[in-house]
Structure formats: C-alpha cells, structure tokens
Amino acid sequence: MKKCLLFLLAAAFVLFLSGSAMATAAPGGDASYYFVTYYSNNVSGAPDATLRFINDGDTVGADVEGDGYLYPWIFVFDDSQELQECGVCSISPDGILSEDVKTQLTNNTLTGKVPSRGVIKVFEFYGNPGLHGWATHIERATPTSGAYTTTEAPFADSNLTEEEYSTLYDLCYYEVELGSGQGVISCTPEDEDF
Questions:
Q1: Which residue has the higher pLDDT, 131 or 30?
Q2: Using DSSP, how many helices (H) and how many strands (E) does the chain show?
Q3: pTM for this one?
Q4: Which end of the chain is more exposed for a tag (fewer CB within 10 A), N or C?
Q5: Cα torsion for 21, 23, 29, 31, to the nearest 10°?
Q6: What is the mean pLDDT of residues 161-183?
Q7: What percent of the chain has a predicted confidence (pLDDT) above 70?
Q8: Using CA atoms, how far apart are residues 153 and 118, in angstroms rounded to an integer?
Q9: Measuring CA to CA, which residue among 130, 74, 78, 69 is closest to residue 104?
C-alpha cells in the first residue's frame, strides 16, 4: 500500500509539472476537481460526519487509464492547519465513495491525537472532472447542550494553484514516508460503504 501510494504521488507530480494533468478534460459535465469542506464536533458522544463523492461517469475513455475511474486524493487537517491523514481512493464510473470522518478519516492520525475539528481538501488525482461531493456536518443544537444536529452540504469548489498542489503533495509524501503507516487513509471499497 505504501509503495503504491508513493508511486501514485510521484506519477501525479510528474503529470502536474508537465501540465498534462490539468489539460485533460472530458467534454461536458462539471470541470471541478478540487473541493474543500470542514468538519466539527468530531468528539465522543457526537454522531459521525460523513463525506461522499460520486463519479458522474463523464470521463469514461477520456481519463488517464481509459476505464473511467476517478481517484479522489483526500487531505484531512486539524484546526491548527496540520495535516493529520491523507490518501488516494478510487471511484468507478457512476460509483460512490463514502467515508466516515471519525472512524475512517481521523482514526489513524500521524500524531495519534483525534482532532475535534478541521478542514478536508479533496482533488481528483489526475485532474479529471466528474467528481461531485457532499459532507455531513455535526453541529451542537445549543452551545451548552449535549445534543447535536446533522446537516449536509456540497463540498465547495476551489481553485488548485501550483503552490497549493505542491504543498499538499509534499505534506502527504512526508507523512507517508515518516509516519510508518500512521497518517494514511485506508479507503473503504465501494461495495462495502453502506
């Protein structure tokens, strides 16, 4: 797994530098491939937040591999802007990826500490369009109560600059290299999500 992730990281970096990763686009559909959201109240006793991404199937035959798969690269930060976990998942055409924040995206942090809130960034590994994402957010019903409410909202489309890409790449690369398995997201296979 570690060697596979490192190979994918290296391949993406080479493609990005050559400009081909960002130039590949399928006709039609939404051209977004970089998204952000937040998570909060990631604490004991609160419900688990969930992120979900779908592959709209628009890239079949036009993606790098030709099979229509999309590869969301997920970065989970705490509220101090520190990367806690990262990893690349896969979604088949017309497939769905579903990951729980508490039990899947913050349960193997580099520091061993589970963050209570932070930011999640996701982009398609090869720069292909066709990803669409939503996240549930866990909010306190009132500031003093122990009750929580859950809302769902789409991920916000964002602009991926070369500097941001390079920073995210470096952070994840060093986390994988130095973490000895800590800080790496293990994605749930599509048919086992629900």
A1: 131
A2: 3, 9
A3: 0.82
A4: C
A5: 70
A6: 94
A7: 79
A8: 16
A9: 74
Classify strands 96-100 and 83-88 as parallel, antiparallel or unpaired: unpaired
* HSE-up (13 A, CA, CB side) for residue 31: 10
Using DSSP, state whether 16 is helix, strand or coil.
Answer: helix
Fold (topology level) of 2-18+29-186: Hypothetical Protein Tm1070; Chain: A (2.60.290)
Judged against a pLDDT cut of 60, whether residue 151 lies above it is answered with yes
Per residue in 63-104, pLDDT (tens digit) is 666 788 999 999 999 999 999 999 999 999 999 999 999 999
Torsion of CA 36, 84, 70, 165, to 10 degrees: 70
- The kind and range of the H/E element at 167 are helix 162-178
Is-contact 9 172, C-beta < 8 A?
A: yes
**CA separation for the pair 84, 179 (Å, rounded):** 10
3-state secondary structure 75-133: EEEECCCCEEEEEECCECCCCEEEEEHHHHHCCCCCCCCCCCCEEEEEEECCCCCCEEE
CA separation for the pair 20, 25 (Å, rounded): 10
The two beta strands, 156-157 and 50-55, are unpaired
